Batch of 3 targets.
Target 1
Amino acid sequence: MAEINIVKTDSRGRVTLPAPFRSEPLFEYVIEGDQITLYPVRTVRKYPDMSDLPAEKLPAGWVKQEEEVNKDTRKGISARTPTEALKAMKK
């Protein structure tokens, strides 16, 4: 039988997890009626294997437009404000 423990929320509605789970960065949850069940997620890959799906043929105009948009290979700018971003772009 599963061990059942009660966890109390603080004044802001936060829950302190038991020690073995405090280092887990990500949880998946399931709500069943009045209970919530947390599961630690050990992988970020949540997508099913879609290798067996047929490839979709896109119109040539659409493919050309996407290639033009996706050719942008400029390095991203990390800035706290729009002004800092503009200064970084001028450098």
Note: Residues 48 and 54 are 15 Å apart (CA to CA).
Target 2
Amino acid sequence: MDEKRVLLKMVKTLVTDLQNIQQRGAGYYSPGPFVQRYNLLLEKAKEMFKKDTILMDTFSPIEDITSVDPADKMKTTQKVVIEAGQLIAYIEANLEG
């Protein structure tokens, strides 16, 4: 099993799940589970791609929020979507070799 390809599929699934939540109104849902999952996947990506640290160092964990304000929840959700999209691009580029 190629763990890098599995990681890529997992990050893509995370983005799909986030998009589904956004369509339902992300401001009403806690971004916590998505933030936590993204941070775990990012940690694994950093382990897998530790040779390529220059660009991987541009990624950092996302802080979860405790705010109940829908606008704050939406901003955090958008951060995860953007960062996960960039991580997908990074992994795909590395897999292309």
Note: The chain has one domain: 3-21+35-96.
Target 3
Amino acid sequence: MLTTLSLIFGYVATAAAIVGFQLKKQSHIIISQMISNLFVALSYFLLGPTKMAGGFACFVGALQTLTNYFYLRKDQNPKKYITVIFFFGYVASFIVTAYLAQKVALPNDLLPLIGSMIFLFAVSIQNSTVTRILFFLNMLVWITFDCIATPVATANLVTHICILISVIVGFVRYDILKKGKVKNEQ
């Protein structure tokens, strides 16, 4: 039952993420990522202790994207202290996971922290091109995390692969083809 629910949450996350990276505005990308992160977090929690680090990291990520969304709506970057707070939030999620598990399983528990640090910067800037590049790197980390611990996080693996593909497509559409058209028109 929990595995089925985990799959459902993972696929909802997939849909939100795919749609998000095909949107042009940074604020729309960020809000879709918040929804995706929330559902991925729930999916990881349902998979048990070996995926707990991912669940905590994605939950903090959902809070960060929600916070950043409100800044972007005002056409502002998040304040530096907000980024620092979330940096410590990610580190705290790593410590809580290690405490609850009574150990640190490297690299299984370290990968969500690395992915979270990349994510921290990806959603803290207003440049869609840099956001897509950082999300590309972020997805490579999360795909590795999904594969190395048992149980394999099937729905989240599908989510992260789809996000990776969507990021690549969005990068080609908005950062290569559209910029190429602008250069040709000048």
Note: The mean pLDDT is 84.
